[in-house]
Amino acid sequence: MGDIKVIGLGPGNPDLFLNPAIEAIKQADVIIGYKYYFQFIKCYLQEGTDCIDTGMRQEVERAKIAFEKAESGLKVAVISSGDAGIYGMASLIIEMANKRQTGISVDVVPGISAFQAAAAKLGAPLSHDFVILSLSDLLTPWQLIEKRMKAAAYGDFVTVLYNPRSKKRYWQLYRLQELFLRERDGSTPVAIVRQVEREEEQIILTTLAEFNPDIVDMFSIVVIGNSQSYVVNDRFITPRGYYSKYEQEGAPGPLIMQESFRTIADQLSDLDISNEEKWVMLHCIHTTADFEMKNLLRVCNNAVARINEYLLSCGTIITDVTMVQSGIRKKACERYGINVKCYLHDERTMALSKEKNITRTQAGIRLAVEEHPDALYVFGNAPTALIELTELMRKKKFQPAGIVGAPVGFVNVEESKHRLMTFANLPFISIEGRKGGSNLAATIVNAVLSRDEAETLKPGRDV
After folding, report:
1. Are strands 202-207 and 189-194 parallel, antiparallel or unpaired?
2. Which CATH architecture has domain 3-112?
3. What is the pTM for the complete model shown?
4. 1 by DSSP, 3-state: which?
5. What percent of the residues of the chain are helix, what percent strand, and what percent coil, each to the nearest 5?
6. Alpha carbon of 65 to those of 68, 175, 236: distances in Å?
7. Among the four residues 132, 201, 229, 321, which has the most C-beta atoms within 10 Å?
8. Does the pLDDT value for residue 350 go beyond 60?
9. Is pLDDT above 80 for 408?
10. How far apart are CA 41 and CA 28, in angstroms?
């Protein structure tokens, strides 16, 4: 009784044949395969080896011949390009062995797949999770292929395309480009590697937006990067994460926050707002885990830039309660010489509160206005304090550097925030409705303090 070895030849260059494949070819009595592949194994053929070639789409016939030859006592090698288990003959041969209930031994001999050879030529595009898709619908319904395409795009997988285009199948690659652009930035790197490891080899680097499907053919492998992939010095790289991890050894906070921000940003890709506003929104959602913030956040009169400019010139922050004061990043305040004050526990505040029969937060604001009328005022708890400030602004005709209005609760909360809209040139950031809180108010200040990071939407400093 003979046997069958299903052999992966690699991408076509004999220098990349694996030793087990070479030995299997040398020992074979019969070699069966698509006629195009025989040119690559001539140097390993032994005298008298019977080579049986078949045309394209003759896979089932090849398999039948292989079993007939093996059942006659011959050693049979069935050859495929790349790896025989990846879009090759391995599955068909094993399935047929089961159906024929034969005692023929079937072994699969691995080879280097075209996607591996292409990746090596490009640099390191597959260093993180990736998927391989064949766009051929000869054996797989198009509806299922499109479902898998959508899943790959949504899952942010690096995606490798086999059988991307043919003369009769030309529009599918355009459809894939359309679907991926819904989930990924147009600057995402794309590589076309044609005839990898062969004399006709050609490599083209482009982007998802500029990718032209018409230059692709059946001899091409297409590699689409994920959201972290980039090209530098003609090298296609998808980071695994080692560099950023060890670059910030002992500081996991920034890495965790960056991952959180990426997750949130994916949900905000449809918003047509400035990066500065999105920067504040990312902080608010990160703090609250509440995506309603994208509907509640108000950033008015160029507030982020104007408040940032004030703070970076050794400004003063007045908070309604000490919880807000505690949440503002200390390192940033030290770096810019920012003074953060809360009058809530000042002895003068307590005395004024009793004298005027007003809340302590109201009394604290009255004192703050006397000493720091041009400060940034931040409210995360007391709507009465925000109302007090706006009343004083009307009466005394002054305007602070800006206001963060995020008091929380049920009584006079919404009304206190509505008052901010009546000041035409006031830079303010508010949370509409009843939501807010000390942590959210401090978060907004921290976002403004790190305005220089808004361009990349990547947090890290002072985390």
Report:
1. antiparallel
2. 3-Layer(aba) Sandwich (3.40)
3. 0.57
4. coil
5. 45, 20, 35
6. 5, 39, 43
7. 229
8. yes
9. yes
10. 12
